[in-house]
Write a structure and sequence with these properties.
single chain; 9 helices; 28% helix; flat
């Protein structure tokens, strides 16, 4: 397993990529710059959903954090597999036997993709320890300030006869006409050794970045799609260069005609993504992780 640092671009057209429940579900925004935000949690959710749909029925590919999951019940499975003789009332602490405690955590990593990828704190009433995940995602930020459009929704049907003459407005929705977002991600091979995250898991992660929006369609989210994912692979597990130095080699700016005409971007082609690939640090290789380049790999 190699170390990877990657830059992931995706865009949205006429949709809300990540509503803020504390702001009436408005698209998340940086109040100082006006740039749109998509949380790492929202992106991990899409990855989890992709894996659940495509691999979830296979052994070792279950999802730990999912809708209506009861975490303690999943912890109980590990205890029953590793230490079934332990009384339920004593399962709130890890076994004093260090190796047996590690076996509980390893069992969870082996059976749940998102634990061995993202890590988990499993120290609830039924304790299975905690792990740091080798895959970490940052918050995605739009390249330019976004404009949120508000739409009133109406309906032609009513719930009860007495509502026939009432106002038919039933709510509002918010959309972004167009925005491209940039996110930074990391794969740490040293932590991957601890959780069992391997090359097969990495391949599934790459495919999820390419396909996850296809499995997450909704009217509220409009058209979301990956644009590009530029990955820097390191020969050394400790890294051959700092991530920020490599990320600085990837720039995205408005195309000349869009900037000269002073018009807002409305498609991916309105941006130019450039990579400075010359004089790379020894041991660093650039890879493309989405689109035709990924499919050919």
């Amino acid at each position: 397993m190699n170390r990877y640092d990657f830059v992931y671009f995706f865009d949205v057209t006429d949709g809300n990529p990540n509503g803020d429940p504390d702001a009436g579900n408005l698209p998340r925004i940086d109040a100082e710059t006006g740039q749109g935000l998509v949380t790492d949690v929202a992106l991990k959710r899409k990855i989890r959903n992709y894996v659940a749909l495509t691999k979830g029925r296979e052994p070792g590919w279950r999802i730990y954090v999912q809708d209506r999951a009861v975490l303690n019940q999943q912890h109980e499975e590990a205890w029953e597999a590793i230490s079934p003789s332990t009384e339920e009332s004593k399962r709130n602490k890890l076994p004093k036997d260090v190796e047996k405690a590690r076996e509980l955590t390893r069992w969870m990593c082996k059976n749940f993709f998102d634990i061995r990828a993202f890590g988990a704190v499993m120290t609830t009433e039924v304790n299975c320890g905690q792990v740091r995940g080798p895959v970490q995602l940052g918050i995605a930020r739009s390249l330019d300030p976004i404009v949120s459009q508000e739409h009133a929704l109406t309906r032609c049907a009513v719930t009860n006869e007495r509502d026939l003459e009432k106002e038919r407005t039933m709510g509002r929705k918010f959309t972004v006409p167009y925005a491209m977002y940039r996110m930074h991600g990391y794969v740490n091979p040293l932590l991957a050794e601890q959780t069992g995250f391997g090359d097969v898991d990495l391949d599934v992660l790459r495919r999820s970045l390419d396909q996850m929006f296809e499995y997450d369609r909704s009217a509220a989210r409009g058209l979301m799609r990956p644009v590009r994912c530029v990955s820097f692979r390191h020969d050394s597990p400790f890294g051959n260069a700092r991530a920020d130095q490599l990320f600085a080699r990837v720039t995205a700016r408005l195309a000349h005609d869009v900037a000269n005409e002073n018009r807002p971007p409305r498609q991916a082609a309105d941006y130019e993504i450039q990579i400075e690939g010359s004089n790379l640090p020894p041991g660093v290789v650039i890879q493309e992780w989405v689109g035709a380049a990924m499919a050919a790999s």
